[in-house]
Design a protein that fits this description.
single chain; mainly beta; Immunoglobulin-like; eight-stranded mixed beta sheet; six-stranded mixed beta sheet; 35 strands; elongated; disordered N terminus
């Protein structure tokens, strides 16, 4: 019976062989002698390292393999910046006692520290090892140190069989009979191996050393964290001619794990894991009758009721919920700076904005706005914007683009110092802002002017109001086909 540390060491050697091409494998000075290596053909001590033997399981340990065909179910809990937590259930037959369970068809992005296993087998996990795939030229050379390989040098077409003694990034050192030769290691140098060692694999693999108290075929639950899965919210807002809106929300999930994840039940969590043990809520929402909503350690969730095929390398868009009969108001706004000094008249764009009060919390995400008949949901794109994280009862205000039929021109009429001329004294400026409505419907434009320091409106052709400490505002009604000019004079004193 091997000692307990041998089990762990065997698992690590099996899945993580020495890959360094810079130096040959060596044996620690305090390690026990390798009797198998001592019986091999002798070679100069400074050239021949001890070979890495093929994996040998402890006596009485059964080796069991599990692939995607054993999987009964897959559940994924995904956060907005990752990582995701995956829970698999596989139907696996284990022997009574010690088992070496080799699990394949798993993501290459697993966090090995997160692996947990449970089963009606009443299993006890004693060790685990993971590789994202280690079958390559370096690992093959390392595994064949001291063994016979065939070499086809760059300047030859004939294979020569010799014993591999050492290698680095530039040369292979081999013994051919009584001679020791160096062969240049170039892209044209071919090395032919008889077979790949059992412990090397070209795809991700997880080895679990388990002790099962009850043998037989039972479901095994395997959970782990993985990078490569994260999601973001996306929206489609449809506006009808009466101003009512209908909002559809989606979860956009990208699979960069390196493998397909078929029939996965997905739980979207409205939080981002910034650091181990620390979660930050970014946004929240509720589902409709076709969804299941819940709570995960204080973070709202959205869970699909059916499985989705998450194909590797693809972004998948999954419907989350709908908010209908929204009372959406459309606004037009133009923003200027009273303190600027333009050289002559300059254009001032008028932008479109929409606003509504949300009854449900909304996660932050991009929104595309369509407008037209409610019976034609594929009407033309009206604009696009970004919904900020908004709690229930909050106001959503979106800038969705420029108003084509509304234009503005601003002209600095006069600017002068109004104080004693000292630095930091008062300044007065007179502005003319010309607004034109080229459409066939009336429009109301909100004009907002940024003003520095302490300010007052000295004169104005239209009634103004204070937006906040640094902005003044006006509401200008524009009949169709007409032009209206806002004239105002402002005085401010910068601190």
């Amino acid at each position: 019976m091997q000692r307990s540390f041998s089990l762990i060491g065997s698992a690590l050697i099996a899945l993580f062989p020495v890959l360094s091409a810079a130096q040959p494998a060596t044996t620690p000075a305090d390690a026990a002698p390798d009797t198998a290596a001592a019986e091999t053909e002798a070679a100069p001590e400074f050239l021949e390292p001890l070979s890495i033997a093929e994996q040998e399981l402890p006596q009485g340990t059964e080796e069991v393999h599990s692939g995607r065909g054993d999987r009964n179910s897959l559940s994924i809990t995904v956060y907005q910046r990752g990582p995701a937590t995956l829970l698999e259930e596989r139907e696996i037959g284990l022997a009574d006692g010690a088992n070496s369970l080799i699990v394949t068809d798993i993501p290459k992005t697993i966090d090995p520290a997160s692996i947990a296993v449970s089963s009606d087998h009443a299993v006890e996990l004693s060790a685990s090892a993971f590789t994202a795939g280690d079958l390559n030229e370096e690992s093959l050379l390392a595994a064949h140190l001291g063994e016979s390989v065939a070499i086809v040098p760059p300047d030859s077409t004939r294979a020569r069989e010799g014993r591999l003694l050492a290698f680095d990034g530039r040369h292979l050192i081999l013994s051919f009979g009584d001679n020791i030769e160096t062969v240049p290691r170039t892209p044209q140098t071919r090395v032919i191996f008889d077979a790949a060692p059992r412990h090397l694999t070209g795809k991700p693999a997880l080895e679990l050393r388990l002790t099962a108290r009850r043998g037989g075929v039972e479901p095994v639950q395997l959970s782990y964290r993985s990078r490569g899965l994260q999601w973001r919210a996306g929206y489609r807002l449809h506006l009808d001619p009466l101003g009512d809106g209908s909002l559809a929300a989606y979860g956009e999930l990208t699979n960069n794990t390196g493998i397909d994840l078929p029939a996965a039940e997905i739980t979207f969590v409205a939080a981002a894991i910034d650091k181990p043990g620390r979660a930050k809520v970014l946004q929240t929402w509720n589902g409709d009758e076709a969804t299941e909503k819940g709570d995960l350690l204080g973070h709202p969730t959205y869970r699909t009721e059916e499985g989705f095929d998450l194909w590797a390398g693809r972004t998948h868009r999954i419907h989350l919920f709908d908010n209908e009969r929204l009372d959406v108001a459309e606004r037009f706004r133009t923003i200027g700076n009273a303190a600027e000094r333009p050289d002559g008249a300059r254009g001032q764009p008028v932008t479109r904005h929409i606003e509504w009060t949300t009854a449900e919390p909304l996660p932050a995400g991009a929104v595309y706005v369509h407008r037209g008949s409610p019976h034609r949901p594929t009407t033309a794109l009206y604009g696009a914007g970004q919904i900020p994280a908004t709690p229930a009862g909050g106001e959503v205000a979106l800038k969705i683009g420029q108003a084509f039929h509304l234009t503005g021109v601003r002209t600095l009429v006069e600017r002068r110092s109004a104080g004693d001329g000292e630095e930091g004294g008062a300044t007065e400026a007179a502005w003319a802002i010309e607004l034109r409505n080229g459409g066939d419907e009336s429009a109301r434009v909100e004009v907002i002017e940024r003003i520095p320091g302490e300010w007052e409106i000295v004169e104005s052709s239209h009634e103004h109001y204070a937006v906040d400490a640094g902005h003044a505002g006006w509401h200008i009604n524009l009949p169709p086909g007409e032009t209206v000019t806002l004239d105002y004079q402002v005085r401010w004193e910068e601190s």
